[in-house]
């Protein structure tokens, strides 16, 4: 007997699955609060060199009022004060920049928008000017942690189960998120943000797998879309939190607080019955399947539910078989899936974060830009829900990536003074990039077998994190050529979109449980699936 048949018996998608999907929305809401947090806690406000302290020790403000400051700060061509240099001594002729030197006595920051950020954190931080790259590196440290977490939690959740590792992720994210907010040095903040990144990835890959593994074929797209929309809720919530909380420490604490809610909700989140059966834990599977049957009003399904019958459910070739990342490339079709999905995830995250990290320069304040970028995800994801069941996952994944690349490329050809048109194209590009990300979660989950699903998601998430980590570095290329970053993002999106055509379609195909299922090919599974469904 296949697990799909068992799931039909206990209720394939009813109140129990509704509860599971809703509870797993909580971690999906938490993720963007941290993944995009650096847009705000590491923002660099306008700043310029502080004047030397006056002999009589009076405050710098007096120097500013007295107009002395304007005599020592060189002006940029647009008339604004230079950010990183000052004249050694007050001079009458402000255009004389020959004696300008790097700031000698710290900086004066414009606090009209931010009370404090990691860039302006005084006492050894001051991550501006020559130290600006250290400020940008904080986001990269976080995504390096996310990258490591993908490998760690991918393996641990396949070995020890989804539910226990989800609790580890919730608790560790709360602990390191809180500690990072109280960092007393740059190094302490960088380390705790990296550990927070590692912890958060656990809930990222487990929440997807756990919700899909409790869902039947017909409702997998719906489940994947709900998971994706909960990320969007968190993304929009971040814009609101950042608008009202302008201190980086308080904003970090606010972004971490939902982890405490997740820890309480964890109690009601069930373990994956698929995983339990795949690992020979029929008794525990029986407990959760009985809960599912009871909640779905299917108590009469006990005939298929005794432990002996459950132990015969075909999920793994041998429940004593242990799997590792190496199994992702041991057989021909698994190798193709792994190589192609790795490239696709790299391209998806590379373009998604390349677009998401640039929220300034569109003529509206950064909070509104971030909110619009998040809000466009709603039609993108709802549209994905309908499109994927119509054109299939492969076309949906390929064309969402290709169109993202085309739109990014088009924007490089539009003159910068066409602000509204550029904004519309950028928002559309974000929407298609979002559709590509939403599809990637669902498509990857369906391509990998149950026995290797978390390893597969861990590997592809790792590749995606590499792409997300690289995106900020690519944006530095604009110092070389303005259009360089956009053309790199566009080319990568189109290339990875074309790679998708090498993968098989999974629409209407039973979720593969074993490596054999994958190697037999989708036609075999499709015919088996339809013949199985025909008996219901
Ligand atoms: O996991 C990420 O880094 C982005 C997920 C985006 C989404 O779920 O829409």
TrEMBL record:
GO terms for biological process: monoatomic ion transport. It is a multi-pass membrane protein. Signal peptide: none annotated. It is found in: Apical cell membrane; Basolateral cell membrane. The chain crosses the membrane at residues 12-30, 137-156, 165-184, 190-212, 224-245, 337-355, 367-386, 398-414, 420-444, 456-477, 483-503. Its main location: membrane. It catalyses: prostaglandin E2(out) = prostaglandin E2(in); urate(out) = urate(in); guanosine(in) = guanosine(out); orotate(out) + L-glutamate(in) = orotate(in) + L-glutamate(out). Pfam families: Sugar_tr. It comes from the Eukaryota. Residues 85-508 form the Major facilitator superfamily (MFS) profile domain. Keywords: Cell membrane, Ion transport, Membrane, Transmembrane, Transmembrane helix, Transport. GO terms for molecular function: organic anion transmembrane transporter activity; prostaglandin transmembrane transporter activity. GO terms for cellular component: apical plasma membrane; basolateral plasma membrane. PANTHER family: SOLUTE CARRIER FAMILY 22 MEMBER. Belongs to the major facilitator (TC 2.A.1) superfamily. Organic cation transporter (TC 2.A.1.19) family. This is Solute carrier family 22 member 7.
